[in-house]
Amino acid sequence: MNASHRPEQHPEPRSDPRDRPARLTVGVVGAGRVGSALAAALQLAGHRPVAASGVSDSSVRRAAALLPDVPLVAPAQVLARADLVLLTVPDDALPGLVEGLVETGAVRPGQLLVHTSGRYGTKVLDPALRAGALPLALHPAMTFTGTAVDVQRLAGCSFGVTAPDELRLAAEALVIEMGGEPEWIAEEARPLYHAALALGANHLVTLVAESMELLRDAGVAAPDRMLGPLLGAALDNALRSGDAALTGPVARGDAGTVAAHVAELRKHAPQTVAGYLAMARATADRALAHGLLKPELAEDLLGVLAGGVTAPGGPDGPRGGTTDGEGA
Asked: What does pTM read for this prediction?
């Protein structure tokens, strides 16, 4: 429908968020990559960051870049100044931080206390809840660089959200204001949820970095340029098709090729052998379960993966191997 047929809509020019009345004052305890980006996103939504805490040089630089004019103060002072406090510290430090803030009387009744840990739900905030705070767990499923690009990446980013029933609407509103999409995670499912994200995102970085190093050792001048299209297509296929996207020598049952890989890795990059074998075994199991790896080819392959030994027939001629050249 043409816009002229909808007279009830009168969009106003976009204004500077600093010129709009702020609804909540925002504080950040732990002005690291995540905290600075989320506070900057909340500022764009009309809230007002008023204080942050951070002691490392990198925290000070990030706060200066993403939260200019926001003073760096002690954690207790952050809570004294803010209606909404982001606790963006490492997972293992979170329980002790919450207990310490409560013991010192820094937590105020009615104060929104938000942590961004993927591991924990709201139970870790129980001491603050007993002090009258309103607990929320909002974990952005995103990697952060500590630069302004992080705020842009929040657009469409899923957040793992855990909150008491009476605060679900508030949690959802905050996530949407930051540009994200709320995904509700039960308290007891938080560790599994976080493990799944770490398995995919954190281990992916390790795999890509190792692959780039091996390509450089093989004489490839621009491994990033070579891997970009391949990994982009593999990721897209995996997200669309799951296990049906499996390809390569393990899924095909090319035991000789896999044995040759292991031999070369032992020679040139022995530190990568354990990871290669572990991922290849997992790939073989999934390929077998989904009918992609033929059982008659699996025996030789699994023998190689069990001990990293040469397949029957030698690395260039495994028994029953294929030569269809499919995929990587």
From this structure: 0.82
